[in-house]
## 1
Amino acid sequence: MATQAVAADSVLYLTFRIEQELLAFEVARVREVLDLCPITRVPRTPEYMRGVINLRGSVIPVLDLRLKFGLPKTATTIDARIVVIEIHYEGEMVLVGILTDSVHDVIEIDSEHINSSPQMGARWRTEYVSGIGKFNDQFILLLDLDRVFSSKDAGSLSEG
Amino acid sequence: MEDRHVKAFKEESYDILAELESLLLELEENPKDATLIDRVFGAMHTIKGSGAMFGFDAISDFTHEIETVLDMVRDGILPVTSGLVRLTLSARDKILEMLDSGTQSLDKEARAIVAGFRDLIGNDESEIKEESEEPEPVETTLRITYRILFKPNTDIFTTGTNPLLLLSELKAMGECTIVARTNEIPPLAEYNPEACYVSWEIILTTNCDENAIRDVFIFVEDNCELSIEKIFEHDSGAESEDYKRLGEILLDRGAVTPEALNNVLNKHKFLGERLLESKVISREKIDAALKEQEHVRKVLQKDRDMQVSSLRVDAAKLDSLVDLVGELVTVQARLSQKASGDNDPELQLIAESVERLTEELRDNTMSIRMVPIGTLFSRFRRLVHDLAGELGKEVQIVTDGAATELDKTVIDQLNEPLVHIIRNAIDHGIEQPAERSSFGKPVKGTIHLAAEHAGASVVISISDDGAGLAPEILKAKAVEKGLIAADQELSEDECYSLILRPGFTTSTEVTDVSGRGVGMDVVKRSIDSLRGTIGITSSKGIGTTISLRLPLTLAIIDGLLVSVGQDLFVIPLAVIDECVELSKEESIQSRERSMMTFRGQVHPYVSLRHVLGIGGVAPAIEKVVLVNALGKRTGFSVDKVIGQHQTVIKTLSKVLGNVEGISGATILGDGTVALILDVNQLVKAERSDIQYKAQGAMPRRVEMTA
């Protein structure tokens, strides 16, 4: 997607939107982007775990970031996508689908344009944000998904 | 090329070494068994020969020294002692090490072992001159089938002889078919209960000679009619032809004259029937002859099967085959779904054929992966041997059901938990010899390993006859470690299951073997990951039994697809007894439980909608799937029963955690995902939910309702 050569100290990000906010995952962690498909709910799991989907024969969980952030759940719209990313979980790499309102672009952000210790409003849970990037005068929240699924959270996960 | 051969040699050697180990341990128990000695010798000889061939000269030289000693053992010059067995075992380990390192010279340790062997034969010379001829250990014994007629005199019981014991002695000699002749039993009025009216015909295929058979009857010879006839020689090399036909056997036995036989042969019926009709012979005699025919045919068939032998396949290839079959099953489900929707009879026919083939292919593939658990058991003989020695305890291991087959992946993952359990049993369970004898127990402790099939699972139990678990001590320990509150009430079973908690250990001192507080929780985790359960029973002073219940296979199961609202679930067919309809009037709501009567019995049932927290309203007529959960019949009410479904099990992502009541997921024909229910867990969860309610707490499922 990104045709231009990537500078040594810059990172590629996939941007997507939740509500009005622009967020991004590191491209290196993104496996693929899927259209919405039927999601099978798994009982006795927290609400933000929307369920599981069939990714070419393997079953992967899908997480609704909006619910995790305390927003209403992602609506089924024509723009909604599931971004499949790799996360590190209990020492293993696992695939997880993330529901997003829409997926935008792959962009390159210079590391000097990333503020790694952001101070934010109460709206976003800062513990999941690894930094704020600036691209074309827009602020982009860079998410660290390993933290979303960290064991501390997983503990509360099973208590639902 | 070279590498491939070396690899094959190594693989072969690993197998031989594994076998050698169990042979040696067996030999220790039966030091007089000549065939064992032969096999040990044979194993060493093979390693030596092929080692030299593939450039493992060090191994070959090393093995040569051992072989020399073993040869003397074989010739009866040296006795089998536990010292010899121990030395040979360490030599075996050394060979394994040398095989792995590919070394070309003998290190100090190896030299020490060689010296040990030389000491045994009292030969101090550095070079053993005699280059033994190395006779190939060939099996020269000929298998012969005998026909034995054993007709005890009617008064044989008065001598205290039990003819059945003689028969079972014969049975132990080889393959044996026994026919009882009962035609001499008189009518009841004339029957003397102290007399023996039965005679037996025994067809025996064995390596033993006639004298050995006569020896069995040595004490009753004067009290019976005994005839032993050689009827068939199996020479293993030649292409064995079919055994004699019935007429020939009967002629052979003089049961029928050639004329009578020819007379009846003209009529068109089975020979036996014809002979019977013409009344030249009794049914019993024909049956006996038929049995003989069947017996020899069976033995011949077995011989042929042995020649086909086995094929060594890379496990990874098998895994990919299983994956492919899994995908095929999914696609087939889709085809069947499509075919049943379309009104095309031809397509339906094809879909049915594909379904049948897929099912067969699946079963065959799964059966390839099935491995007898005995391979795993034999590994533990060594473990027990070594551990007992280390701890100064005397322990023997007894195994049962070694032929029980389990999926290879399950077996592979069982090794570690079983090692933990056996270690614990020897370290904590079995007492020191002195202590044991003061309790009046046999000095030698016993570890009993058993495996058996139970429906779609296999139960492996590990019992020891040691000190047993003391619930009070376990509880006190758990309180001390802060695992439970001091005032918590625990049942005996709950106390036992405390040992499965992380960070729990009761051993007062840390030994090399166990007692670091790791172990049983690791066991629990691995058994959980195999979708198995652990049960512990124990009685103080008598011993502890840990039983592991495991599913037969991890890959594919037969399931029943059911729906609740929009959601689809699969219930493993193996636990299902039956499905019934249930209208609202039929259900009895008593306190927190729903009950239903079915075939005159009252069964509890659980609404799946309820227990899984699925919204919506149940239809007026629900279906109830009756399952066998936790040893009890329980129903699960669902909206619809859709049908049988071959279920390829996919594990749920770790991220979801251990979801109670769900054991996995499967992909349906249309590509959507259905969840596989774990009925045991669901029933357990439902019970604890009831407890929650009793305590006034809100059950978790309320939050789940969307």
## 2
Amino acid sequence: MWRRTFLLAASLALAGLALARDAEVPDSARQVELRNMLLQDCGSCHGLTLKGGLGPALRPENLAGKPREFLFETIRLGRPGTAMPPWGPILKDAEIAWLVDQLVSGKALQEAQR
Amino acid sequence: MKRLSNLFALLLLWTSGTFAGECSLRGTGDLGVVIERASGSVQIIETSGNTAIARVTGLGDLSHASVVYSRDERYAYVFGRDGGLSKIDLLCARLVKRIIQSGNSIGGAISQDGSLVAVSNYTPGGVKVFDADSLELVADIPATWGNGRRSKVIGLVDAPGERFVFSLWDAGEIWIADMKDPKAPKITRFRQIGRNPYDALITPDGRYYIAGLFGEDGMALLDLWHPERGVRRILDHYGRGEKKLPVYKMPHLEGWTVAGGRAFVPAVGLHAVLVIDLATWQEVGRIPVYGQPVFVEARPDGREVWVNFAFPNNEKVQVIDTESLKVVDTLEPGKGVLHMEFEPRGEEVWISVRDRDRVQVYDTASHRLVRELPAQKPSGIFMTWRAHETGL
């Protein structure tokens, strides 16, 4: 039990760390890849215009009021019992934090509408 | 740079030329469409010379798009993610009509006699049925379940007897809609068929409807000759004791990948293709593959099965020999292989490679690349032979 608590605490601390460390933003080549992934691969379930599909809509107005940590952990760990898989095995924490930024700020959406 | 501008000039010539405003006198049996998911367009292609004929634009959000054909193989009905239903004339390469019929949709089907087109919707959850000529609404079937909630609908197919069959993702149900009186569909409902059916297929004879389950291991089987016997579970607990791998793209069940009395279906959460004996409905084989299978498609002669994979393994395609049940070849078309479509008699297969903005054509005897065509973020490829296949 203590171990799970410890792991949880550690992961939250790490999450906070990743969110705080702006220095670690993905380089521009990686940003292009991530943006493509966000629209194309996340878009398979959330829609190319992020209006939702099998998964919920991810436009800024849909995410308003949701804590960043929650969004970060949803991407990192997935949502057990739903079709949302954990992206932690594939993406670095800084990359997930960058994706959260893109979604919350609406930058991802601007890209989708270009 | 020069090459690029040449390419651009060529593209301009090609998009503005060929068909503009006129219709061609030709058969449509060797035609097909390629969905260009990001630009909301389709390309009309032909498979005798493997060329692109024209592009039709203005089709909306095609992030998850599919196509069915009119029985004369002249018109393609495109189902878009944004609830759009578009009717395209292949001969004139033009959009005949487009309606927005819901907020969010996933796919569709055309009825046995070709008079009705049905669309399965996520928001609001249900099925809408349209007149195939006019696209006027004929019937609205809300997928209502517990407490008046509405379920997302998936796995919509046509079945003999002017019926549509579909599954409810949230509710875990299968419904049959008998459309003999199109304005008053007769619904038969099967409850508790399993958690989160993600897609379904119908056998080419139209007898068995099979829904894959995402929320548990197994598939739900309905014998349409004997709906009174109810839905039974097959391949129950196929992943027992194994750690589930994350699924980064929902697998698809399309057509009936059957060869030598056995069917081939994607496992969910396992990097494997499952082999089912059709006499007993038991699993008789499990073929380890490179990633989470998305499409598992039999070459029309049944000798080979071609498989593509979910992100992040979507740069490869594997070929399974249906006699030895072994992977005999691994091809690498490039990142973002989204779909494969065999030509009607199977001598060539078309593969969309999204991230390379290419459609590739392979010779299925040698597995060699024979042609590459430019396409903008291509996804589904749909050929007109589907017009005469139940469930496609």
## 3
Amino acid sequence: MNSQTKSQFIAVASITSELSAVMVVAKEISLAAANAKAIAFRAGDKAKGFQPITDFINELAKETIELVTNINVYALLLYRLTVNEYRRTAAYNRFEQVAKLANGAHYANSMQEPITHAKTMMQDCQRQFKRDVTQLLGQLEAVMHHARAARVIAANSRIEASQAGEYLQSLQAVAESVDKAAHTIHDNVQRCRIALSIYRNS
Amino acid sequence: MKMTKIYEGAHQWVMFGRDENKPDNIIDSNQYIVRTANKCLLLEPGGTELFAPMMAAVLHHAPVDQITDLFASHQDPDVISSLGLWDQALSNAKLHAPALWEGYIRNFGCESIEYVPIPDNGETIKIESVELQIIPAHYLHSPCNFHVYDSQAKILMCGSVGSAFEPANAPVFVERFDVHVEKMRAYHQRMMPSNQAKRAWIDRVRNLDIDILAPQHGRMFKGDDVKRFLDWFDSLQVGTGV
């Protein structure tokens, strides 16, 4: 296995790993939203501005989970494609080796068709991989967008929390956890994007 | 890769092996082809490492599109791990291999090649006009295992039975049976787990008219050495190699 194939396998595997961490964090946001809703309900009028924010947080968490679930399915397809490309490339290289070793053999020319076919299949896989990576990067960008939105919501939450009297600390804690989660999602997804960006269609 | 024609009649048998360029840490194995006018059956195609020299050697005898059938006696990687490569090279081929091992062997890659499962009691396969008997050889050494008998050529491809490990320059036929025995003993005691299975195989094989015993590793046996081998194997206690 050459170093390009190895790093391709690692890049694809790292997406699954990073995204599973994103999933955990997105679930934490969902939990924070539920917690915030309960606090805002108890705070009544003092947290009136905070109540619609909890719905936003919850919605955002749900959408992130949904996006990441879809991306994981896609990442699995990308992994299969990588395996396929590896097999095709290995076959093409071996077939080329056969052609060299069979020099002078009575039926050496009959190897030409498998070589051409293997080369076509290998190139198809490489093109498909680049297309799929480009698409996956687009999906990851959508998750980044959600993470940015979550940070805006966290900032608004802090403002609303400051007017919640004795509930200030609890609501600020919610805002902090949303902000922290948004950071984590942003960082993890960014690492996925960096790992994949060298393979995208130029 | 050394090529030795071991039968020439209306069809041919060729033995391949003793690849001088194979990595040292990979065991040497014998491959065989049965070549008819328009088809070629490849017996024990070999491991991935062996694919390129093997395919190149076969091209001295048959074009790619006439390699129509493969046979694997059992599931071991030195027998059939090259399957994924044959699968991409051959557009219209069948693999005859034990039914029990189908789910295992497919791990090597089998998308375009048709897997033809061999039932436990064996069967007959036909390559143009050549009829080959697939003889059960279970537990010798794999729990589901088959040998191939050609009654026209009087050759029994006997898989792991009769195997020995030799350097690349060793002759392809046994020359002194008494010397060769010591190269086989430990392998058979360790790899063959059952005296009962061995007995059943010997009873079955003694009824066949055999000129050449062709194992997957080491030298082939011909003439009187065939009977000598059967007698020696008959008297050997197996499953005792540890």
## 4
Amino acid sequence: MVLQQAWKAGTAGILMAASFAATGWAQVPGVTADTIKIGTFGALTGPGYLYGKLPMNGIEVVFDEINAAGGIHGRKLQLVREDDRCDPASAIGAVKKLIHQEQVFAMIGGGCSNATFAARETIDEAKVPLIVMASVHDGITTPTPPTIFSTATTSGIESAAQLQYAIDQGAKRIAIVSMRDSWGRARYNPLVEAFKTKNIKPVADEELSPDANDATAQVLRLKMTNADAVIMLLYPKPAAVFMRDAQKLGFKPLAIGQTGIADPAAFEEQVGSPGATAKFRTISMVRYTPQDPAVDKWRKAIETKFPGDRLSVFNLFGIGSAQVMVEVLRRAGPELTREKLVAALNGLKDFQTDVYPGPITCSETDHRCHKTPAWLAKDPGGPVRVLGATKVE
Amino acid sequence: MALFGRRNILLALLLLGAAAPFFVNSYQLFVANLIVVFVLLSIGLNILVGYAGQLAFANAAMFGIGAYGTGLLQVHFGLPFWMAFPLGAVIATSVGLAISLPALRVSGLYLALSTLAFAEFTRWVFLHWESVTFGAGGFKTPPVSFEPLPVSKPVGLYYLSLILATVLVVLAQNLVRSRIGRAFVAVRDGEVAAESLGIDLLRYKALAFGISGFYAGIAGGLYSAMLNYVSPEGYDLFQMVLHKAMIVVGGIASIGGSVLGAFAVVALLEGLREVKGVQEIAFGAILVVFILFMPGGIAAFLRRKVRGWDEPVHRAGPPPNPDPAAAARPASEAARP
Amino acid sequence: MLLLSYLLLSGVTTGALYALVALGIVVVNKATGVINFAHGELFMFSGFVAWSLHVGAGLAYPIALPLAVAAGFALGVATDRIAFRPLMKADVISLVLATVGIAFVLRGVARVIWGGKADYLAFPPITSPEPVMLGEIMVIPQQLAVLGGAIVVMLIFAAFFRLTRAGKMMQATADNAKAATLVGIRTERIYTLSFGTGAAIAAAAAVLMAPLTLLYPDMGFAFFIKGFAAAVLGGLTSLPGAVLGGLTIGVIEALAGGYIHSSFIEVSAFVVIMIVLIVRPTGLLGVSRVRRV
């Protein structure tokens, strides 16, 4: 009898423990014994796809590599994509769907600045960890959110670096030419702040639309101010138009690009006017251009998985942020919870990825984890040169 | 009244809508609220385009003006949502009245372009008048609170939207069956004939633009509160395409159709999340297939197949001409030289 | 003075881009009375096709250009068969929306095929890339090629409408489709022909313009809006009007950018359109069709 009772109690105990363990797992959304569900959102459609679909392709190849090697603590990574069309309402919808319907464990995402900024509130409320892959809006990471971390150089960091670089190169008369859309403004406003901090004034402030086909008016106006450096907060297309018209009109300032023009070789081809890019320098979130042998492995992975595609810097944005996610998932250990993941992110120090110029360091109080953009140049006809990385404090 | 007639179906939808917050998750509630807001937009546009026959492209801009108006009055003047919201709708209405002026001179594709130009101008103002609109970066609006009612913000806002939408749907139903509605239809079917019947073109065109501006303004105010954020991207030409799609899919010159069209388009957009990467292709293809195989939209289809979906412009009895396709055809000839 | 001449010239060269797009819109509208809202996407898609043939497959320019134009024509015919012919009796909004649907499909397909190749695909120019002196002013030769192209297309089609049987039939159809049918013109064929021709013009335009504008899936809409505006400004059915409208918009933009501020470039054209349409509701060179009672 006693034996039987003990046996019963024992089984009950084991069953209880088992069920406890089971509910324990069930309490962590998106995690099962052998999978972890990671969500991603950004533009899959519309012009913003460069900052959405392409980084997502990068994440996908990193996950494939990890899964082929057995996953993280025995769990395979699953990626769930949602489209936000670069639209704030759609981004809120996408994030709500990932969190409440898909029940993802964590997210890597964020392409367009306004869309991600609008979705921040929903993410903060649900306390789901997010690693931002491409959005740069300062409002996403300042004031420091509970669970959002950015491996993109935020616009404040980028702007400060751009201005510092112009000054270091001896520029006295610095001008701005920018796009007046959310992408452009997310960079423009911090740049103007950076000017104020340095107590200088831009000598000119011109605007160019993302679809512009002519920049004669802008170039002539800048030329009249004798600007010796121009900071271009422009997509590659309007920037190419600007450089071409500047060449045509004999205006040859130091031209400083932004992180979206991180491939000077492709840019030279886009400008298409011989010698026009001689004084072009660009800042980059990643250390390598897509042609660099150092990223051979990833080029092969992208071009195999997505036939017809060519490796782009946008793919690299995704690869870098996915590598950070993989690392912190590993550090969070086999008993995965969101709190542990956030703790691992908060404690991440000097982590090197395959793509970023400097190490990734986050802290409790600062979730802007990428502070070392690189500087790239390409002499007409010559190879791409990495001029070094700026560390912004 | 037929069992599956318009009134019963709309009533069933309303009941379903009222019960929704008790069994849906937070994402589904968001989508439901989106549908309700789009119902308002769809009806406003259908009154202008479907009933009054004005091929205008400024509805997304009106929607934006409602959202900006509501948001900015709260941010700049510290007005509570309860005051800013109706004022925002009033602003949208007055802008609607103002843009009816060009409609007196031009029609058809010329009206399309002049309203499109106005919409682009509005977006330019949102982007460039930074001291007021905060420019391209947009701005956060203060969160709406429903105290002392015991509901959370999303649920409260959802019910507010639902109540307003119900009232405005009923209002629109009655409007299109009144003298005003019939005057709209007369203007649509022939301006010269309408004028000879003593219909004042200026007055009725302005009224149609004003009403659609009002509906879009109410929708905009609710939308800004839903997102707690206003920025220019939401009110672009893609938004305009969505509005047009709602009335074409639902049924031109049909209030019931506008409601169903809003459901269909929002459901389609959210449903297409499943076909990652090819949403654009699927959206375009479905739109084309729908227009080809469902002429007159859902409303005309139901009118042919189900009893109780006629929408006479007179209260008494069915119209003398029971051909539904004829009833649902706006003044396309006027637009085609 | 040099500033003004530079601005005027840049206005004219940018305006030529708009004019080329507008010409295709006008050719379609002249015969069918509708606006093809997918015109910008037909333009974009044909440009990518030309890129694949010329840069991708390495075909020589004289072979790639006609092939791209043929592809454009085929796309135009497909647009007619899918989104116009079955809808001739439908209302104008359904027609507009059907072409918008086609535009979405083309944009999505282009994104899937070419979207992963680069952010903006460069297309080698047919002329020398070095700027040349024109009097005191520097110009990029390709810009002159676009301007020349716009004028040539305009002259060819003006002659086509005046001198050829097909052209006259197109005009008769546009004037009065019922009467045209009565005298034995197969109006449906005329519609197909004009959709195809409009898209072929878009393809030729894309090849000429791509070296200046670069190729990307979302380029179509911006050009369509400007082209539509140029066409309406010129009166919607007039070929010289389309060119005049395009150049006017280009020059207005350049002058607003040069003399006021570059932030006024994008909006200036629209403000002018609103004013022109209120003052002259049928555009600059349009024929008034208002019936007097």
